[in-house]
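Example 3.2
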Amino acid sequence: MRKKRRRKARGKAMKCSISTYYKILDAELYNYDDGYMQLNVDIDTKNIDLEEYVSMQKKSIADMCNVPEENVIPISRLEYETYTDE
């Protein structure tokens, strides 16, 4: 019986999808109640700094919702699902 050999990626970056979840406080978009947002992105793992990505997303969400950045809180998927219909 022949063993299957696994090929190495040979410098090619792995592709994957990332979902991040946020709680947004005091946004008019959510009638000033707590709001929740999920963002999905397909990435090349060689070129991603997750902390920088989340920081940039927080800033973008804050700008879009017209709230201070500190009102955009990264949360877990479990918390997101608990407070939304998904």
